């Protein structure tokens, strides 16, 4: 009898090797190669063209009624989902430990159960008594949730098959699930992939909305094979710093709605509270204009969020190498912007330490933040405050020009709604002001900027 072949699978990326290695050759992670049973090799003589069950086709205009979304009871969660949970869908939610994933899903389960829905909550990490203790602390003990602590997928599917179809099934977490048909410990690539496949198959057949909680790696990516994100319909990331109050629920993939939509929550004593106006959360304490502070109207999906960008410039007396510290923005983009300000505007930052911070722990990826960052840097360098109740947005090119950005009207409308009176941005944004159309910043004093030289002249020559 032929000796069975051994294979080693990376627990971080799923790469397969015939021999053990200390470092994965694909993802460069150390000590992640684990031995697993080799896959069964089928002979090429097997013909799959017959013997199966014929499938039925459905036309796009078929009169069969479409599934109706179910509201979760949390408007911010529904917004990130694209309008609510779709029956038969699979949602994967990842986030750092202690960020509030279980709390959010427990609140969602309680809200749906109170509305008359059939909710099943399976915890593989906590005992049922521990979940009940958290529910009592959050004031949700009266919700009729079917709660259990289990890790065997066979036991879970057998139990669910004997019950009425659930409206919501929460699995916390997929890395703790185990199938007796697959070799390997819970959390390995084969176990996570196999267990998720069986649970998703059950959700599609029964019309149950399935939510899987996923662990994350030290880099913030969802642990397990990357194929897991392709198997589900929605991938969500629950982000935020535990030292800050706010939490952001971000949709990274959504087959039923827009991508990059966010829901904003605030962690309070009774659980997660919805933040309907996130701009007020990130702009608190702005009574007096200060040097080095600029307001930027960011855009997350279709939602505008006003955030404060703070800059500090410290001149060095000795020949020490100056530091560049960034929190909440790309450090490489800051270096590029400093180079443009020196080369195109004649400003000197080479002998000064530069510190940049996005207030409230918010993380910016919008390229339209270039002008606001530049305004904060010039304001800090000249020690002159920017005009009160003003916003800044626009992308900066290497030539020092201000380039247009998407959805200028939505940004201006949000700024006007919060009482801001002045805005500075690219020339193409001027047609969004005073037009009276929906989505415009009607009544705002909009100032066009074609280049960074206009920005420097406006700030330095303002006083």
Automatic annotation (TrEMBL):
Keywords: ATP-binding, DNA damage, DNA repair, DNA-binding, Hydrolase, Metal-binding, Nucleotide-binding, Stress response, Zinc, Zinc-finger. GO terms for molecular function: ATP binding; ATP-dependent DNA damage sensor activity; damaged DNA binding; hydrolase activity; zinc ion binding. CDD domains: RadA_SMS_N (cd01121). ATP binds at residues 95-102. It holds the Pfam family Zn_ribbon_LapB. It comes from the Bacteria. A motif (RadA KNRFG motif) lies at residues 253-257. Residues 421-445 are annotated as: Disordered. Residues 66-216 form the RecA family profile domain. GO terms for biological process: recombinational repair. GO terms for cellular component: cytosol. PROSITE patterns: RECA_2. Residues 353-463 are annotated as: Lon-protease-like. PANTHER family: DNA REPAIR PROTEIN RADA, DNA REPAIR PROTEIN RADA-LIKE PROTEIN. Belongs to the RecA family. RadA subfamily. The middle region has homology to RecA with ATPase motifs including the RadA KNRFG motif, while the C-terminus is homologous to Lon protease. DNA-dependent ATPase involved in processing of recombination intermediates, plays a role in repairing DNA breaks. Stimulates the branch migration of RecA-mediated strand transfer reactions, allowing the 3' invading strand to extend heteroduplex DNA faster. Binds ssDNA in the presence of ADP but not other nucleotides, has ATPase activity that is stimulated by ssDNA and various branched DNA structures, but inhibited by SSB. Does not have RecA's homology-searching function. This is DNA repair protein RadA. The lineage of its organism: Bacteria, Pseudomonadati, Pseudomonadota, Alphaproteobacteria, Sphingomonadales. The gene is radA.
């Amino acid at each position: 009898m032929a000796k069975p072949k051994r294979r080693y699978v990376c627990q971080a990326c799923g790469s397969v090797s015939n021999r053990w290695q200390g470092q994965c050759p694909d993802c460069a992670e150390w000590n992640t190669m684990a031995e697993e049973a080799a896959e069964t090799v089928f002979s090429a003589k097997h013909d799959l063209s017959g013997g199966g069950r014929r499938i039925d086709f459905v036309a796009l205009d078929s009169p069969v009624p479409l599934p109706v979304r179910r509201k979760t009871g949390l408007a911010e969660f529904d917004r990130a989902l694209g309008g609510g949970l779709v029956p038969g869908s699979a949602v994967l939610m990842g986030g750092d430990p202690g960020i509030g994933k279980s709390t959010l899903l427990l609140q969602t389960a309680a809200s749906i159960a109170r509305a008359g829905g059939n909710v099943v909550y399976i915890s593989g990490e906590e005992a049922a008594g521990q979940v009940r203790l958290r529910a009592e602390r959050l004031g949700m003990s009266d919700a009729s949730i079917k709660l259990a602590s289990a890790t065997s997928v066979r036991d879970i599917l057998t139990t669910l098959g004997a019950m009425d179809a659930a409206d919501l099934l929460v699995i916390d977490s997929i890395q703790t699930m185990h199938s007796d048909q697959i070799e390997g410990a819970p959390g390995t690539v084969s176990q996570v992939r196999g267990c998720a496949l069986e649970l998703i198959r059950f959700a599609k057949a029964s019309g149950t909305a399935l939510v899987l909680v996923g662990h994350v790696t030290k880099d913030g990516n969802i642990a397990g094979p990357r194929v897991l994100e392709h198997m589900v319909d929605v991938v969500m990331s629950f982000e935020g710093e535990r030292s800050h109050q706010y939490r952001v629920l971000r949709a990274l993939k959504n087959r039923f709605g827009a991508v990059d939509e966010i829901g904003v929550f605030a962690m309070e004593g009774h659980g997660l509270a919805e933040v309907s106006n996130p701009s007020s959360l990130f702009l608190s304490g702005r009574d007096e204009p200060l040097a080095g502070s600029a307001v930027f109207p960011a855009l997350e999906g279709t939602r505008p969020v006003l955030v404060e960008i703070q800059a500090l410039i410290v001149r060095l007396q000795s020949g020490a190498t100056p530091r560049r510290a960034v929190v909440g923005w790309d450090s490489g983009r800051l270096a590029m912007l400093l180079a443009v300000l020196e080369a195109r505007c004649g400003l000197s930052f080479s002998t000064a330490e530069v510190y940049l911070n996005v207030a409230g722990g918010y993380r910016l990826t919008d390229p339209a933040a270039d002008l606001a960052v530049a305004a904060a840097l010039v304001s800090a360098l000249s020690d002159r405050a920017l005009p009160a109740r003003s916003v800044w947005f626009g992308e900066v090119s290497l030539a020092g020009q201000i380039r247009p950005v998407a959805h200028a009207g939505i940004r201006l409308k949000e700024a006007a709604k919060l009482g801001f009176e002045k805005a500075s941005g690219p020339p193409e944004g001027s047609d969004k002001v005073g037009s009276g159309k929906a989505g415009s910043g009607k009544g705002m004093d909009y100032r066009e900027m074609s280049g960074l030289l206009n920005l420097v002249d406006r700030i330095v020559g303002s006083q």
